[in-house]
Amino acid sequence: MKVSIVGSGYVGTTVAACLADSGHEVVNIDVDEDVVENLNDGLSSIHEPGLDKLIEKHGGDQLRGTTDYGAIRDTDVTFLALPTPSTDDGSIDLSVLKAGARSVGEALAEKDNYHLVVVKSTVIPGTAEDVLVPLLGDASNSIERRDFSIASNPEFLREGSAVTDFLDPDKIVFGTDGDERALDRLHDVYHPIIEETDAAVVETGRREAEMIKYANNAFLAAKISLINDIGNICKEFGVDAYDVADAMGLDDRIGERFLRSGVGWGGSCLPKDVAALCAAARTQDYEPALLHAAVEINERQPENMLALLDDHADVSDKRIAVLGLAFKPGTDDVRNSRAIPIIEGLRKRGAVVVAYDPVATENMRAQFPGIDYAKSATGALENSHGALVVTGWDEFTALSHEFERMADPIVVDGRRVINPKVLPDGATYEGLTW
Ligand code: UGA
User: Fold this and answer.
1) Most Cβ neighbours (<10 Å): which of 96, 139, 148, 428?
2) Best mutation site among 48, 224, 254 for ligand 1, i.e. most ligand atoms within 8 A of its Cβ?
């Protein structure tokens, strides 16, 4: 098939590269000329395991980049993978998505056969139906001709494992208004993946598809906050929350994943989506008590981590290492990283922060230009009076004699990646929930 994808962020680029690898002819539209040029040169603009190889293989050939929306006229289906960020009150900001949809509509005005537009972006239930259908119809002058339809196909891939998640998903959700042409086309796009994997295909309405995405992320956020709440209680009672979670996870109804307690959830999705769902619920006069609690617990975890350091040292004017800046391992994304409140808290205490991350340093430097950045974990630990482990990178698990370089070996682990046995004699190790 010929597929166009609007947006070259984590989702758009991954979907574009994976669909090209599945045999489709793909064009990826973005306003950023550098990103487009990179794609045509076979280079990835984002750090995502496996993505660079796919783009190197297909870029400029099976996978092309362009800034021209007119390219969609030569395709059968267009995916909208544009950001839907939060406004100040947490509600969803549809301005970028609407502008993109308008450009798609204008391009479709000059297309004379059926076209399917698929919403990949995360949107509040009713957005496809109430916002995008009229907008596209208006921009393309074709609402009466009914020669386009809009489907919802939310994305569940995770950053850091985006390629494998997309190519081997647990489920694929097709939300349509019942138009058979839309459903057939979605099946055609996903045919190679459906054939080769055990993915469940869920065919449902558009509103349901939109809600499934929020419900998924809200559940994951609440699951982590619940285990953090339990973990905080464990810490008070001298109980190891990881032993508890391991046993809980053996219950099929609970499952072992997303039970890692620690400094909490960040990223561009869980915080934004929980906030948007709460804001949407409020417009209907419903207060989602559990989701509010999940957010509150998450906001408290960084301060709990800092309090553990306070128990052992006055950090004012002391050099303190922050290990890990990315919101999770495997990505250079620092959006809503728990490292942000940790760095802010350390600076409020007057500490001299020296931070290290294997790939996210430059992104964090844009946010905190005034702190020191080390080139290695060893460099960050050198002469420090405390270390806070914020991202669970594998390379931190391998650290051992490097801790001997600390002036004061106090290690507070927010991700359970340091083995306390490797610390020098007399060192202090605090796990956040164990
Ligand atoms: C999340 C969802 O997992 C994806 O299914 C979804 O597609 C994506 O949002 C999205 O909406 O685009 P992502 O934000 O990439 O994916 O990251 P996750 O793997 O969900 O991790 C989120 C945060 O939770 C990270 O800060 C991570 O460190 C934390 N986490 C995760 C824990 O603290 N404990 C855990 O057990 C798991």
Assistant:
1) 148
2) 224
Query: pLDDT tens digits for 309-334?
Result: 999 999 999 999 999 999 999 999 99
The 10s digit of each residue's pLDDT in 208-239 is: 999 999 999 999 999 999 999 999 999 999 99
- CA-proximal residue: ligand 1, atom 13 (nearest): 158
| pLDDT attached to residue 141 | 78
Q: What is the residue whose two structure tokens read 């994997």?
A: 197
Least confident of 133-142, 191-200, 213-222, 287-296: 133-142
Regarding the beta carbon of 220 and ligand 1, being less than 6 Å apart is answered yes
Q: What pLDDT, in 10s, does the model give residues 244-281?
A: 999 999 999 999 999 999 999 999 999 999 999 999 99
Phi, psi (rounded to 5 degrees) for 102: -65, -45
pLDDT at residue 145, as a whole number: 58
Q: In what order do the strands lie in the sheet with 25-29?
A: 63-66, 25-29, 2-6, 77-80, 115-119, 148-152, 171-176, 200-205
Q: Sign of dihedral through CA atoms 17, 220, 168, 25? A: negative
Start and end residues for every CATH 3.40.50.720 domain found in the chain: 2-204, 300-431
Q: What percent of the chain has pLDDT over 90?
A: 94
Atom of ligand 1 nearest to the CA of 260: 36
Torsion of CA 89, 92, 95, 98, to 10 degrees: -160
Return the exposure string of 284-293: e unless at least 16 CB atoms fall within 10 Å of the residue's CB, then b: eeeebeebee
Q: What's the topology of domain 300-431?
A: Rossmann fold (3.40.50)
> Closest Cα partner for 132 from 153, 110, 109, 105?
105
SS3 (DSSP) at 66: strand
Residue with tokens 């947490």: 90
Q: Whose CA is nearest to atom 1 of ligand 1?
A: 158
**The domain 214-299: what is its CATH number?**
1.10.1040.10
Q: Give CA–CA dist 307/321, Å, rounded.
A: 16
The pTM of the full predicted model, rounded to 2 decimals, is 0.95
CATH T-level topology, domain 2-204: Rossmann fold (3.40.50)
Would you say the CB of residue 260 lies under 6 angstroms from ligand 1? yes
